[in-house]
Amino acid sequence: MMTYHQHDAITIASSSAAVTGIAEGCSAETTYQGEHRVVHIATPGAPPPWLEDEEQGEEQRATIAELVSHFGAVSRERGVELVKFGSVYIGEVVDTNWRHPPSKEKQMTIAAARKKALKSADQAPFRGTSFEHMRLRRLHPWESGNFPPHGAYLRVHCDPRTFPASQVMDWSKRIVHKNEDFVVVDKPAGVPTVPTIDNGVQNCVFQASLAVAGMPPGSRSLPPPLHAVSRLDVCTSGIVVFARHKEAAKQLNELFRARRVKKRYLALLTPGPAVPTGSMAHCCRSKAFDGSRRPRIYADFDEELLAGDKWGGAWQEARSTVLLCAPATGSASAVAVAEDRERAEAAARALEESAAGAAARLEAELAAGLGLGSGSSPEEIEAAARGGEGREEEDGSTAPDAEATTAAEAAREEGDHAPHLCAMELETGRTHQLRLQLAAMGSAIVGDTRYRGVVGRVHRGLRVDDDTSRFGQEPEAIALQAARIEFEWQGRTVVFSTDRPSWAL
């Protein structure tokens, strides 16, 4: 029998503690976070040898894969696959494998935690349970056939996001450099730098660790771990650095924190004006007025934002330097822009109705916040938001005659309608920084469907600017590459770079 409870828009299903067959004695719950299903399983508790006041019962045992299959409502093959993906975690409320019994105080604490975690299903055994004394870890790929310990907790992510690009790469060819301290890897687009919560295998750091150790995929042992000291978005390609031991990780992290690492990027921008060369500074924050945390559009640089509580406070500096921005004339760039335009048009058609509704709501809220009427035009709203900037001046000036346009102006106009190849140096390292800075400057990176809808917009301190309804889906790949990295190591300057991507040729 299944019972359902509603808690903060998350549907929780509790199975009866008296389940027949292989899962007899287990209890489980299913939570839904968005469209992703997570199953929580508690195996029957049994005392360790050093707890004499409880009896050790014998019962039919099920393997981890069988429990995942039964409570996750998936095939056994899928259960094995989820373990291999690193989508299953285990936590032992009572550890029966200690060589020596812990102190009496520790024994009592652990016993209490176990009893708390193994309440009856009617009392929802996982909600409100503190797993402070639980050793939660991701299961290794070869552990699907193991029997879980008594009193264990399993967390199963039934719908993990997959990254197929990681499985078709020859990762040995992605190693740019390795020494006894660190490894430099050319990460492909479409692959996360580090494991996600529901996929521990299809990522750059794990695959690179296998390649460095010379171990084939599917090995029944783990390679020596690598420690990520730099990261890129899933959709971004290029240079990342992994430390090979903790001391190297500590030193490299200190270099990044002190901004003593030079990071150069290449980006292909959609047709439009060139981004001015020189410093590019903005103010950013991930925490919105309502407290939610996710990237927002950037504000123009303002020292007051960084220093105080203006506009809700918690603003940070986002700074980079545009080294070069020139028209891209290569055939590969033209193909990339054409493909990007097709994707943009398809997305626009699919979202046209909802986008129009969202835009109307945004403009209405913005007009109300500025004290304007509901019928105000977008131009009036924009002018009022910028303190009058952009209003037409009646000073008697006239527009230049079209026939007086010079050849230089014509050439510049032609350049403004061309895609541009942009070289930038990143100084700070905020989430999605270059993508959001370029959007604030009025430019879009080819393929960046997430921020295409906010190109040219900047935060003006209004709640409406925290709205992310204009954001699109996160893309799998964009025309942005971490092309070069430079830092001091053991008294000398080291520089690592990768080949130009096809869209930059």
What does this structure look like?
This protein has helices at 64-72, 76-85, 104-117, 204-213, 246-257, 303-307, 331-369, 378-385, 407-416, 433-440, and strands at residues 2-7, 10-15, 27-33, 36-42, 88-92, 135-138, 152-157, 175-178, 182-187, 227-228, 237-243, 262-269, 278-284, 299-300, 316-327, 420-426, 480-489, 492-497. The chain is of the alpha+beta class and 505 residues long. The chain has three domains: 2-157, no CATH class; 164-258, 2-Layer Sandwich (Pseudouridine synthase); 269-370 and 415-474, no CATH class. Strands 8, 9, 10, 11, 12, 13, 14, 15, 16, 17 and 18 form an eleven-stranded mixed β-sheet that branches. Strands 1-2-3-4-7-5-6 form a seven-stranded antiparallel β-sheet. Helix 1 packs across helix 2 (76-85).
Number of separate helices = 10
Radius of gyration: 28 Å
Biggest sheet architecture:
11 strands, mixed
Please, how many domains? 3
Structural class: alpha+beta
CA distance, first residue to last residue: 62 Å
The global form is globular
- Order of H and E elements: EEEEHHEHEEEEHEEHEEEHEHHHEHEE
Mean pLDDT: 77
Write the layout of secondary structure elements.
Elements: E1 2-7, E2 10-15, E3 27-33, E4 36-42, H1 64-72, H2 76-85, E5 88-92, H3 104-117, E6 135-138, E7 152-157, E8 175-178, E9 182-187, H4 204-213, E10 227-228, E11 237-243, H5 246-257, E12 262-269, E13 278-284, E14 299-300, H6 303-307, E15 316-327, H7 331-369, H8 378-385, H9 407-416, E16 420-426, H10 433-440, E17 480-489, E18 492-497
Parallel strand pairs: 11-17
Antiparallel strand pairs: 1-2, 2-3, 3-4, 4-7, 5-6, 5-7, 8-9, 9-11, 10-11, 12-16, 12-17, 13-14, 13-15, 15-16, 17-18
